[in-house]
Amino acid sequence: MNSVRTVVMAFDFGLRQIGVAVGNRETRTAQALTTLSARDGTPRWEEIRALLDQWKPGLLLVGLPLHMDGDESCLSQRARRFSRRLEGRFSIAVDFVDERLTSYEAKTLLAEQGRRGSYKEAPADALAAQLILETWLSAEREP
């Protein structure tokens, strides 16, 4: 498998912050990268371009925020819009991952490590993106 198809990048979409993680389909590993600032869900696209140029992913994942009953939320529609813009701007396929409870899980993991992660602190968002990617990797069939 060529390296471009091996690399996957995930986004934990938010209106003020967007967490980013990168992973490898062959090794089935993921790591939190960074958290990008956003204004009403719009990132600085040049920052995303720089990450894409650096990592060269073959697939992008966007966490889809659903209600606990599985219904879509208002934020789900915003995440879908963000994904359409990603795909349109960068011509890289985008897939969705159910992200229910990933932010909560990220904050819990950080607290267990003695660190505080909140929606205002970058580590929770990047870690949430890593958890989204790990969820996808665990569900994907072997490459």
Question: Helices, strands, pairings?
Answer:
Layout: H1 3-6, E1 7-12, E2 17-24, E3 29-39, E4 42-43, H2 45-55, E5 59-64, H3 74-90, E6 94-98, H4 102-112, H5 122-139
Helix pairs in contact: 4-5
Structure description:
The protein is 43% helix and 27% strand. It is α/β, with parallel strands linked by helices and 143 residues long. Strands 4-3-2-1-5-6 form a 6-stranded mixed sheet, with helices on both faces. Helix 4 packs across helix 5 (122-139).
Oligomeric form: single chain
Low-confidence stretches: 117-122
Largest sheet strand order: 4-3-2-1-5-6
Tally of DSSP helical segments? 5
Mean pLDDT: 83
**Separation, N- and C-terminal Cα atoms:** 8 Å
Helix-strand string: HEEEEHEHEHH
Q: Biggest β-sheet: count, sense, barrel? A: 6 strands, mixed
Secondary structure class reads alpha/beta
* Cα shape: globular
Beta-strand portion reads 25-35%
DSSP summary, beta strand count: 6
Percent helix, as a range, is: 40-55%
Q: What value does the Rg take, in angstroms?
A: 14 Å
